[in-house]
Write a structure and sequence with these properties.
alpha+beta; 4-stranded antiparallel sheet; globular; Cyclic_Pdiesterase
Length: 170
């Protein structure tokens, strides 16, 4: 079984700038599990545990979606939590996107975001959302996505590996 998701990589300068902005928040809230800089990405869709046939099917599905989608602009601005700010498991930097382009690629129910931290138990992260919401990045173009595999091992940081990189609009 493989744990997979679809993502777009952040430009290195945006990734590093966001990670630097999170330094103060990491210091003040060490109990959260903060995402390492190299793992920050714009989530397109989380798929979850998948067998080999499902992985192949998802790669084919996302190759078709990517080929049918045009590149589009994105920037980070704002923040939020899943499932709700007052009972959160995930803290994220919100992404501003061209909504029709995003929906065409990701689907109508997907919130464009970059996960920055997770909690083990439901927590009220209202204050953190307010602090992170002050962050904004430069605008950049999403020109490709990747079907990614995540490796989770107890006591070790998550590791992500691209299974297939898929250019948009080709």
């Amino acid at each position: 079984m493989a744990r997979i998701f679809v993502a777009a990589q952040l430009p290195l300068d945006v990734r590093d700038d966001l990670h630097e902005h999170l330094d103060v928040l990491r210091t003040v809230h060490p109990s959260l599990r903060w995402v390492r800089a190299e793992n920050l990405h714009l989530t397109v869709r989380f798929i979850g545990e998948s067998g080999p046939r499902e992985v192949d099917r998802q790669v084919e599905h996302w190759a078709e979606r990517a080929a049918d989608a045009a590149p589009f602009s994105v920037s980070l601005s704002g923040a939020g939590c899943f499932p709700q700010t007052w009972r959160a498991r995930v803290l994220y930097a919100a992404a501003g996107v061209d909504e029709p382009s995003w929906r065409h690629l990701a689907g109508p129910d997907q919130q464009p975001h970059v996960t920055v931290a997770r909690t083990r138990e439901l927590s009220d992260l209202t204050g953190l959302v307010d602090e992170l919401a002050a962050y904004s990045s430069r605008k950049w173009e999403i020109e490709q996505i990747a079907v990614m595999r995540s490796f989770l091992e107890r006591g070790r940081p998550a590791r992500y590996e691209p299974l297939e990189v898929l250019p948009l609009g080709r």
